[in-house]
Automatic annotation (TrEMBL):
It holds the Pfam family Amidohydro_3. One of its GO terms (molecular function) is hydrolase activity, acting on carbon-nitrogen (but not peptide) bonds. Residues 52-536 form the Amidohydrolase domain. Signal peptide: none annotated. This is Amidohydrolase 3 domain-containing protein.
């Protein structure tokens, strides 16, 4: 016997252009059977149909987080969180790491993440001397909130073999003092290859599965039913993470759809034998993408800009890969039919990436590649137009406007450049598909805050940054639903509440298309539903 559920008693916001609003939706065996009025659908129900009262809520398609690091976030759950305003001084950092070290004596390293130097009064990057206050006998490593910079203490440098003679890998930098000795701060490839690849990571399959399940539950709390987990394989975790995802799906315990992209920045990176290609159908796990990156982050001064940073005259950041190397990699994977996501924050980096995609299309045309430019913070309108012509989708880190907008104006970029970060308005006017993301663990998966920021463009101080780049609530929802589904070639299966598609829903407490923009971020997630199964309920 088939299993039917009738959802009614609220507003069904379908994101289907043929009929955006409805009263009810009927689901059969995890697939949407019909959408319409409550009376119409009640006639299609039977005595065995389960009835779900939406309690006046606003039912939308389940949110798809189009760029994050769910599996990395899972590992971070065992580490010390220094973000979210937890640390205003270096003393705060030291105290939190000491306490974490005392609670994790079985671990070799004391590891922290989320440190934001711009939140400390002295705008202070950590040094080995700071972290030596945590411990001189145990190695300490701290991730900057950008993920592109990190810090180690003297014991860690000793164990990792980082000395005054150590050369930084290509595309990486080791900060040194006047005598040429490392200060403890490393950037980009130096941080990745000299430190993170050698940090403790869980190896027990059951432990990894448990951590991923815990991470998934965090995403479910914010209405997320699907993720693009980018860069699996960092720190040597690729095979174990993929095995954990597959095992959870086999056991029926994976409450999210995961489109996985593998990091292939160097020959040492994980390349899985399992490559599923594009499109997900009803699968929960697909290895469908390749991840590359060409620069760092604006707030770490490592994004590659066309003009110098406001706080570092004469310095514009640097690319971590040269043009010919990137073009060769893009052509290789493009010609192979793979989906490619490339991290590019600065406008110099975006120019390089868009040009590489254009060249690949000229040499090996694909009608609808849907490659992605990740973050795409400082794209110009000309980049937007060229991405549309090349079949490329930008994914914007929307919350940067709120959390870093003021600092982009006052510290890093100045008013003119900062006002056009995350140019969602330009993309909407150009008719270019785009998405929004939170880049977890850089930020928690705060979907409603991401949507609210894209609509209101307000910084933490309350200033509107780039009025012309505001978008409507409907468009912001599309960036998490219909347009996000296209990134994994899944628009026939999800992204809208349409008959024949999967019953993946997010139930909100209010109609965010008819409330004040300021109220959107406070909208609650009532339920998260995947194939008619409630995986989160407030």
């Amino acid at each position: 016997m088939s299993k039917k559920t009738l959802y009614s008693g609220g507003t069904v916001y379908t994101m289907d252009s043929s009929s955006v609003r409805a009263e009810a939706v009927l689901v059969e065996d995890g697939v949407i059977k019909a959408v319409g009025s409550k009376s119409e659908l009640s006639d299609l129900a039977d005595v065995h149909t389960r009835k779900v009262d939406l309690d006046g809520g606003f039912l939308v398609p389940g949110f798809i987080e189009s760029h994050n690091h769910l599996s990395l976030y899972a590992f971070f759950l065992d580490h010390c969180n220094l973000g979210g305003g937890a640390c205003e001084t270096i003393d705060d950092v030291v105290q939190l790491l000491r306490a974490h070290g005392a609670a994790t004596r079985d671990s070799a390293f004391i590891i922290g993440y989320g440190y934001d130097d711009t939140y400390t009064p002295s705008v202070h990057h950590l040094t080995k001397d700071d972290l030596d206050r945590v411990s001189t006998t145990r190695p300490v490593a701290v991730y900057h909130m950008s993920g592109h910079v990190g810090y180690v203490n003297s014991k860690a440098m000793e164990l990792l073999g980082i000395t005054g003679e150590t050369k930084a890998p290509e595309g990486g930098w080791i900060e040194r003092d006047e005598s040429g000795n490392p200060t403890g701060k490393l950037e980009e490839m130096a941080w990745f290859h000299l430190v993170t690849d050698k940090l403790d990571t869980p190896t027990d399959p059951a432990k990894i599965q448990a951590l991923i399940k815990k991470s998934v539950k965090e995403f479910n709390r914010y209405g997320v039913v699907g993720v693009h987990d980018a860069a699996i394989g960092v720190a040597g975790t690729g095979a174990s993470v993929l095995a954990a995802y597959n095992r959870l799906e086999q056991m029926g315990e994976l409450d999210i759809r995961a489109f996985l992209s593998t990091m292939v920045q160097s020959s040492a990176d994980f390349v899985p034998e399992q490559v599923d290609g594009v499109g997900m159908g009803r699968k929960r796990v697909v290895v469908g993408g390749i991840k590359l990156f060409v620069d760092g982050s604006i707030q770490a001064n490592t994004a590659a800009m066309l003009a110098p940073y406001r706080n570092r005259p004469g310095f514009s950041g640097e690319l971590v890969v040269d043009k010919s190397e990137l073009e060769q990699a893009v052509l290789k994977y493009h010609a192979n039919g793979d989906h490619i996501s490339i991290h590019a924050n600065g406008d110099a980096a975006i120019e390089l990436v868009v040009s590489a995609f254009e060249k690949a299309q000229r040499q090996h045309y694909r009608p609808d590649p849907r490659h992605m430019v990740i973050h795409c913070q400082t794209a110009h309108r000309s980049h937007i137009d060229r991405m549309k012509d090349a079949g490329v989708i930008p994914s914007f880190f929307g919350m940067h406007v709120h959390y870093y907008g003021d600092r982009h104006v006052d510290t890093f970029l100045g008013e003119e450049r900062a006002s056009r970060i995350n140019p969602c308005g330009d993309a909407a006017r150009a008719g270019l598909d785009f998405t929004l993301h939170t880049d977890t663990p850089v930020m928690p998966p705060w979907t409603m805050e991401s949507i609210a920021t894209a609509v209101a463009r307000k910084t933490s101080s309350g200033r509107v940054l780039g009025e012309e780049q505001k978008i409507s609530p409907h468009m912001a929802l599309a960036a998490y639903t219909t347009m996000a589904a296209k990134c994994s070639y899944s628009e026939n299966d999800r992204g809208s509440i349409t008959p024949g598609k999967l019953a993946d829903f997010t139930l909100l407490s209010a109609d965010i298309t008819r409330c004040e923009p300021e109220a959107i971020k406070d909208t609650a997630i009532f339920k998260t539903i995947i194939e008619d199964k409630t995986v989160y309920e407030a």
